[in-house]
Amino acid sequence: MSDPLRVGFIGLGDQGAPMAAAIAAKFDLHVWARRAVSFEALGNARHVREKDPVELAANVDLLCLCLRGDSDLHDLLTDRSLLQALGKGATIVNHATGDPAETETFERITEELGVHFLDAPVSGGRPGAEARSLTCFVGGRAEALDASRPVIECHSTHIFSMGPVGSGQMAKLCNNALTVSNLRNIVEVFAMAEKLGVSLEGLRDAFEHSSGGSFILQALGTKVTAGNAAHIAELNRTDVDEFAAAMRRKGVDPTAVLEWAIKGPDGLEALVQRLQ
């Protein structure tokens, strides 16, 4: 009988903390954070606090990361001591959204020391993490995903293998671009409907049960509120810019999507206020 899988987690932020708590319900969880206050986000979830990333790596079989971006991940991996502590055959699962090209670089760094790397960004935000219903787009070796799947299933209802490392990030960026493009559609169509006296609340409720519905439409006035709309709009703009930059680096022209989607967040706050 094999020993139970020991899982490490770094990145106890708004989305990472509930993901880590979900893992702790089924696995031996080891965590590290720069600030002691970050551990409070785990609530009553069982966990072992490690003094630094290298000590954490030495005590786990699989390391999950949900950092702010590629620069934080770069800082962790360029110090080879963490990878050496993990040891050959271990796996790093990167849940943050980043640049597909950078992700390919991360895999080269880890594979040199025999550590597998999965790029596995998630969609669903904090609400999805708390409900343990995230969607995870995975790029990387099939055997590494198979070994990691029981851990990812703790917080993600849907797990999709997209291809080699980098493809998970590209799929997430495409998802983001499509979401914001749909937002622009909603902003424009609802503005026209309002001029004609059509109930915006009625449209939203009706579209939930018809072909005009979408995830972002259902979120307006529920997950996206007057209180957080400005913040989400800024995140949407960043999402579109990151999508366009990644496409350009791969030699694909993103102009058509960029010019349409980038204006969607401009009308988000006003629309949510009218719906509420």
From TrEMBL:
Residues 6-163 form the 6-phosphogluconate dehydrogenase NADP-binding domain. Keywords: NAD, Oxidoreductase. Residues 166-229 form the 3-hydroxyisobutyrate dehydrogenase-like NAD-binding domain. Pfam families: NAD_binding_11, NAD_binding_2. It comes from the Bacteria. Gene3D superfamilies: N-(1-d-carboxylethyl)-l-norvaline Dehydrogenase, domain 2, NAD(P)-binding Rossmann-like Domain. This is 3-hydroxyisobutyrate dehydrogenase-like beta-hydroxyacid dehydrogenase.
